[in-house]
Amino acid sequence: MTTAFEFWDYFIFTAYAVLILGVGLWVSRDKKGHQKNAEDYFLASKSLPWWAIGASLIAANISAEQFIGMSGSGFALGLAIASYEWMAALTLIIVGKYFLPIFIEKGLYTIPEFVEKRFSTNLKTILAVFWIALYVFVNLASVLYLGSLALETIMGIPMVYGVIGLALFAAAYSLYGGLSAVAWTDVIQVVFLVLGGLVTTYLALNTVSGGEGVIEGVKVVYNAVPDKFAMILDKSNPQYKNLPGIGVLVGGLWVANLYYWGFNQYIIQRTLAAKSLKESQKGILMAAVLKLIIPVIVVLPGIAAYVMVNDPEILASLGEAGLKNLPSLEQADKAYPWLLQFLPTGLKGVAFAALAAAIVSSLASMLNSTSTIFTMDIYKQYIDKNASDKKTVNVGRISAAVALIIASIMAPLLGGIDQAFQFIQEYTGIVSPGILGVFLLGLFWKKTTNKAAIIGALVSIPIAMYFKVAPNGWSTSALFVDVPFMDQMGYTTLLTMLVIAVLSYMQNNGKDDEKGINLSGDIFKTSSLFTIGSFAVMIVLVALYAMFWN
Known about the structure:
Blueprint: H1 7-28, H2 38-43, H3 50-61, H4 64-77, H5 83-105, H6 111-118, H7 121-155, H8 159-177, H9 179-208, H10 214-224, H11 247-250, H12 252-263, H13 265-272, H14 277-298, H15 300-309, H16 312-317, H17 335-340, H18 347-383, H19 389-410, H20 420-428, H21 432-444, H22 450-469, H23 485-508, H24 528-547
Helix pairs in contact: 1-8, 1-9, 1-18, 3-9, 3-13, 3-14, 3-18, 4-7, 4-15, 4-20, 5-12, 5-14, 5-24, 6-7, 7-8, 7-18, 7-19, 8-9, 8-18, 8-19, 9-10, 9-14, 9-15, 9-18, 12-21, 12-23, 13-18, 14-24, 18-19, 21-22, 21-23, 22-23
């Protein structure tokens, strides 16, 4: 068994890279006699079919955070972390039925644009600046860091060079082609992502079972660590603070998922680029179905790695290579890169291409959305309101390049973070509750006022920070001390919505706001395919939670 890359591994990985760059540049070309305009660059000419939307949603979502970070969490706390994926399937259905019809009807380019139409330019600008900062300093930087960590672990490439290489790869086609290049290459990325992920899962389970196959491997893993398969953790579990029992199903995870899937520019942007609302909803349904199987390729390998590391017999069978970069509860994010070392020649290249696909597709999506928000909500609003299409597209490319440079500088500074997936969720959770509260009330309560929304969004930060810092030196008699961060998000959202509701009612004496959205039942009607598919997804979810409740 060799942990080094050989000719066929390099060949497969190089072929993947050439294919992605080739397709990305080909779909990016300007059609004869047509110069790329803003709709072409930022919304792929509103021409995406459902299957491209579904694939692109998953490719944009599944990144190093999942492959490395979520596998690390699987190693540390088990299948319970899969709630992020399985609950996301239900969230996608809610977004497709209740949010998308409003967004598409208003012809949006960006989520901040909705804020302007419903509230004001001031609130739009506040949120646009926030999102740009979040994408650059948290999302882009963390994906670059985790991706380069994998390169360093598997191939010995220094982190700085890994960051530069991944950044240039993503930039090579996404900066020029815009959303069209990102979305169409995502279709290919998803194939690599799923196949490569399944290969790694197969290897881990087959190794655990002593070469007797996947089914036997699942049995061995389950019998060895049955506690790792509990979906609902009790308070005695040391990881309860990360996934607080039943609160996962009825509490803060809804905040994280509704914010991420419903109001996150780099996710929702591809649904806004659909040919029609029905086409967009079919893409959402496809993504929901794929979400059900994602834990098999990102969580199960982490649990299998835990069994391998803690079984002296299995560890001995791996030879000296098994002791290199060994994951531990303190360094759980090494689990997935550690597993990739033991894949056979050729398959190692496929699995590494899958990891690269996850990283690069997310980078490209984040870059495109960062440039979209900056160009449409900052540049065209405050710098050049009459910018031509050519200038708008060029500004989009330049702003994406600047964002990538800043994120590349930040990425190596994230070293030392364990369970990066949990870290990202926790710190995004400080600001997401306030934004979710603003959007939910703005969409579905006509009395919500602009002034109340601004105050609510700003007040949500100190509310969230109270929950965050109260355990660290404050009196133990303080209210809500030492609350799990997922519950913190739930409480912050409810308190923010209460502030907004009270202020709105006081400001308008209970009358509807002039910018309130008039909603009718007809806008939420869906096709029979979407309805039946949604029920099927929900039935599968109920079965999964019943099977792995504790």
